[in-house]
Structure formats: C-alpha cells, structure tokens
Amino acid sequence: MTTSDRPDTNRWLPVLGGMLMNLALGTLYAWSVFVLPLEQEFGWTRAETSWVYTIAIISFALSFIGAGRLQDLRGPKLCAFLGGTLVSLGFFLASLTTSLFTLYVFFGVIVGIGNGFGYATPTPVASKWFPDKRGLVIGLMVGAYGGGQAIFGTISSAYLIPTFGWRTTLQLLAGVFFAMTMTGTLLLRNPPAGYRPAGWTPPTGVAMGHTDFSTAEMLRTPTFYLLWIAFCLGTTAGQMTISQLVPFARYAGLGATIATYSLIVSSLGNAGGRILSGWMSDTLGRLRTLKIMLVVSAVAMPALYLLREQAVPFFILIAAVYWCYGTQLSLFASTTADFYGTRHLGLNYGVLFTAWGAAGTLGPGIAGRVYTSFGDYSYAFFSASIFTLIAFGALSLAKPPTKPPASA
Fold first, then answer.
1. Which domain covers residue 242, as residue numbers?
2. For residue 380, what are the contacts with CB-CB under 8 A and spacing of at least 6?
3. Which pTM was predicted?
4. Is there a domain that residue 3 lies in?
5. DSSP 8-state class, residue 194
C-alpha cells in the first residue's frame, strides 16, 4: 500500500499537537510583563532584566541544534516531552527566585532550553505531513507560538499579576503549560516513510526540496550563509521590540492600559505574519515574500519610535513590526525545507536557527544598553532599520542551492 492511500484527515492531528505545544512555549514572548514587577521589587536596572530574555534566546537557539538532531533520529515525542517538562519546571522555579543569578538560570537557561526542545518538533512534523501546503501549515504551527503572548501575556498583565503577584502567576502558568505540552506531545508524530498527500505530485527541481542535503552539504552552499545573515539581522528588530514592549509603551507615556493592549495587538501581528505570510509565500514565493516584509520592517521601526506617543499609530506600527518578525519565523523554516529537503530538517533548521539566537542577543542588548545609557530608545530603533536593509541585501543574493558535486 502506498502512503498516499492513508486518510489525509489524520495529518491534522499532529498540527493540533504542534499548535498546543507552541501556544504554551510562546509565552516566552510575554516576558516583558514581568520586567516592571521584578525591577520594582528588587531594584534591578533595565539592562540587567534585559539579560533574562537574552539568555533565554541564546539557550533556545543553541539547544535547538541538538534537539533538531534528536528529532531527526528519534521522532518528535521525546523532544516534545523534554521541552514541555523543562519549560514548566523553569516557570515554577523562576517563581522562587531571589536574585538575578537564579532568575538567569531558572527562566533564562531552563525555560530557554525547554523552548529549544519543544520548538524543534512542530516544524519538521508539519513539513513532512504537508509538502503541498508547507508555507500555510508551518505558519499555523509557529503562529500559535506568537499567539501565546496574546493569551497568557494579556491575562498575566491584566489580571494574574495585579491579583496574585508575579510569583503565583509564574506557578499557575507552569501548571497550565505542563498540561498543554503533554497533550501536544501525545498528538505529535511523523508520517510513515515516503508519505505523500493524496492526489499530490511533487514539483520538480531542487528549489522545492527535491534533493535532501545533509547538514555538512548545506554548510558548503553560499546560500546558507546569506540566509543566516538575513535571518539574524532581519529578526533583530522584532527581538528588540519583544524584549522591551511593555516598558517601551510606558516610556512613550501611553499608560498601563495601552501597554496591556499592545500585547494583544503585537501577538495578532506576530501570528498573522506567520500564518498569512506563510500562505502568501505558497503563491508569491518564500524569498519574495520575505523581502517585502523586510522593507516594511525597515520603515516601521523608525516610524514606531517617532510616532510612539500616539496610540493609533503605535498600535498599527507595533502590529507591522511583529507581522514582519513573525513572517521570518515562518518563512525561514519553510525555505530551509524547500532548499535543503526534509530528511535532515531538524538539524539543518537548528543550525540556521542560531541566527535567530544571535538576533536575541543583538536586539535586546542594544535596546537595554541604549535605554540605560541615554534614557531613550532612539538609537536602537534606527539601527534596527539599518540592520533590516542589510538583511534585504543578503536575501537578494540568495539563490536555490545545488548539490555539491563531491556529494552527488
């Protein structure tokens, strides 16, 4: 029996599992709701609290490489279980913190590593089940990650933290996340070898992943390095804004209510970029869609700073920045699958994903240091625009790779 004879309806269950997993993991993006309570209680500076998010991103990106390899070898369930367990444990332990060091370890390292293992599973699973709708379905998977900020960040900021305090909020989230990620783990699974959706014929050509590249072969292609530069510099703007969103809204004089609503608006933009831009890329092409979003981001970042004191432009521009950021998290994953195949996708995308980790150091680091040194964010937002234009240039040079002759 060919794998195309299997019912296609079954392939949506792993998508649901991946969305549940990412919805819980995505609360990492809501970190900024805890910044002010922690600074008020312990007297920490913005530069010091910014390091929590930076450490989490670095831990996320580095662990993603090993998790991707484990996913390629053992399938998604073990990685998903480890990821969900570590994220839940990290949130609980962070509620007990009494120092910056313990917060760096509990939230930065443990939650970051948990994200790396948990996030490593949905994208390869989606790519294998949906080669016919790769952009859209990967967008749905990673779009849930952006939605976690809207749901849990807003609830935490508007109700849980004011009512129960930040410690109890972290403990409640830990319990909810464990239940969600374990359910997602049960649903995640790879298709059988050689699976092909009913009625679908693979397109010809290397550009759609007709040839599988090993990681060593991928690293010998110039395209990989252009993608890495574009991914790093292109997501710097989003990482900068994510790490400082609530404090930036307060800095702009918009008040606590606007700051809370900005979590919802930003999450809608983030999820929308991942889902709708993923769908668009199935028609327009991955690289063309990415380049459009990079241009928009280059304009939106300085505009956001200049118009920060006006609520309506603030919301519109926050949504635009997050849309462009979310697009990149969706399309760099699907581009990796298109260019280098799905056989080694876990490790291949894990290696490319280090670019996002570098952006997690660059963006929040610039924002935190600029604010601490000058008391404003102007240099940070304008420099992010320049980085985005450089990313556009790198992406413009990227071409579909060909198999290295030595490995043909």
1. 11-189+211-400
2. 240, 366, 367, 370, 371
3. 0.76
4. no
5. T
Q: Does 100 reside within a domain?
A: yes
- E strand segments, 147-223: none
Residue at 5 is within a domain: no
Encode pLDDT of 11-52 as tens digits: 889 989 999 999 999 888 788 889 889 999 999 987 788 789
- Is 1 within a domain? no
> Which residues have CB under 8 Å from 287's CB, separation 6+?
335, 395, 398
The CATH code of the domain that includes 72 is 1.20.1250.20
Total domains present in the chain: 1
Q: Whole-angstrom Cα distance, residue 208 to residue 174?
A: 40
Q: Are 262 and 245 in contact (CB under 8 A)?
A: yes
Cα separation, 93 vs 87, in Å, equals: 10
Q: Where are the alpha helices (DSSP H) in 253-285?
A: 255-284
pLDDT digits (tens, 9 = 90+) for 298-320: 999 899 888 888 888 989 998 99
Sign of CA dihedral 129, 133, 134, 135: negative
Q: Which residues contact 32 (CB under 8 A, 6 or more apart)?
A: 53, 153, 242, 243, 244, 245, 246, 247
